[in-house]
Here is the input.
Amino acid sequence: MGDRQKENKGAVLLVAIARVIALLPFRALYVISDLLFPLVYHLVRYRRKMVRKNLLHALPDKNEQEIITLEKAFYHHLCDYFVETVKVLRLSEEEMRQRMHFENPELLNRLMKEGSSCLVCLGHYGNWEWVPSIVLHLMPGVEAGLVYKQLHSTAFDQLFRKIRGRFGSLPIEKRSVLRTLVRKKSEEQTIVVGFLTDQRPPRISDKYWTTFLNQDTPVQTGMEKIARTLSLSVVYLDIERVKRGFYRGRFVTLSTNAALEQEHILTEKYMRLLEETVMRAPANYLWSHNLWKFKKHD
Here is the structure.
């Protein structure tokens, strides 16, 4: 059996386990999360060096013990993220509304009434897989989608597409985002599309450099370019972890017409707001992501 076949069979097995886990109540899920922590942190040591490096560079004012405390808190949150994400498969609309609370969805609905589709930029903070539930708060006739990158494993890709589309949101592969938005505009159909804009851009790509978490950071510019090209509104989603299994989201308007903004202004506004979100409770950010792989003068 080839490595690829083994990998696919392993993925199928993990997906099957995830579907079984989703049947459990939250109390049992968090027991599983607590049991996963020593496995992920101590035994597997999943990306421990990268997480430690990122924390040290981003938070230079923290002493060694504070960094270790944050590091452990991050891994606890990462394990929670896993069980919370698969639980979406079995969550009712009512419970999802209670656990992922949006303070001001009327802001999006007001933009929709004005006939403008909206791009919502957010970061890998809290549980971003619960954000597509915003569709439950939008006025009738408005669609919602979340941009994603297709996963190599077919089994995992299908699982995450089902999770993200659980309540009616449209998973949009990143290569088809512009095409989808142009089609919606021609059909006079408004849509709210979420962008996880803090992913590391490819080495050979258009990128904007800024300072983020005390480091020179490359930022993808696709969201801003699409918004400016199509004269869309842009909103930031500030996420707060209220307690285990409960999150609160608040929308902040960045622009009601991106075509009127100067280049990189929207990206800069987004990065500053995301930085504020992260610094409020750093443990809930995705520190295992290799955002700072490339250097400015590479």
About this structure: The chain has one domain: 3-284. The longest helix spans residues 64-87. The mean pLDDT is 93. DSSP finds ten helices and nine strands in the chain.
